[in-house]
Amino acid sequence: MSDNRFMALALSLGRRGxxxxxxxxxxxxxxxxxxxxxGRGWTQPGGRPHAEPVALAQAGEAARGATAYVTxxxxxxxxxxxxxxxxxxxxxxxxxxxxxxxxxxxxxxxGLAMLRGAGIDVETGVLADEAARDLQGFFLKxxxxxxxxxxxxxxxxxxxxxxxxxxxKWITGPEARREVHAMRMRHDAVMVGGGTARVDDPSxxxxxxxxxxxxxxxVVSRRLDLPLxxxxxxxxxxxxxxxAHGADADPNLLKTWEDLGAELLPCEAHGTQIxxxxxxxxxxxxxxxxxxxxxxxxxxASLLSADMVDELITFNAGLVLGAxxxxxxxxxxxxxxxxxxxxxxxxxxxxxxxxxxxxxxxxPH
Length: 365
Hints:
Helices cover 29% and strands 26% of the residues. The protein has 12 helices and 18 strands. Zn(2+) binds at residues 50, 75, 84.
């Protein structure tokens, strides 16, 4: 029972790194001796130092003979830092408890073998499901080359995001909007479609939470027809802006956006839209592990149709706009229920006057 308790603490620490340590995984580590926590650590901004050396440094001499709880198999390869497995061996811990093994070919099983080879007792699989969920973005990037994708939809009870005249501020209340900022903070990037960028002129930053590291701002615009005097354009040199575009984008616009400070991501296009598969592969190649998509309707529909949405978070406000309103999701061409993407309800809660639901993709059997 104590193993579960200490691993739960390590998992909570690991989540502190979400959104700030990509392309590395957000790992947590707890050092325990005689039932007392003597060291805590999590992956630091930029991905280094890793969780284990941070916790070991805090533990000092108390790490000798202690148990280390780590949410992901300690790394076994020399990168920009020495292997964490070596650090644990050098600290002379007696036991290492790991939630999940690493799927990275440079590590997979080797970290555990190094520890066992040094005479350290190793146990795996403690709170493995929880750890696998927290680290799903890292595993998806490693195994499939794409990041974990959360799609957020804020709409009326009848699924609208704006009135017939385009009025949309604000459908949900301040409590829901603050929670969305906290969600942005836990992702590597915030993404919107070109239509949302043109109509809303969003900043896509985390505000009022005291953060000093902002997520990358991604705009998906096949033709790159975005306002050059927008908030994103004016701040591209302050907070990263990446624009996913198609091969038919105007070369003059490509040059202009580069001069403004944006990074351009060429992607394949299917018809009038960027291919969602190409888009996600491009984001994965840049090292992103967790992406938070806030629409609009056409981008949401394309991602859902391509089965790219891992988590769906909905905020529903207690108002109705009717058929004249703009739908939160664009046309998907679904003719039969069996073709529709399905999600399992994970949680439901009141946020101010709104209702928040968290849904996870139904995995095929």
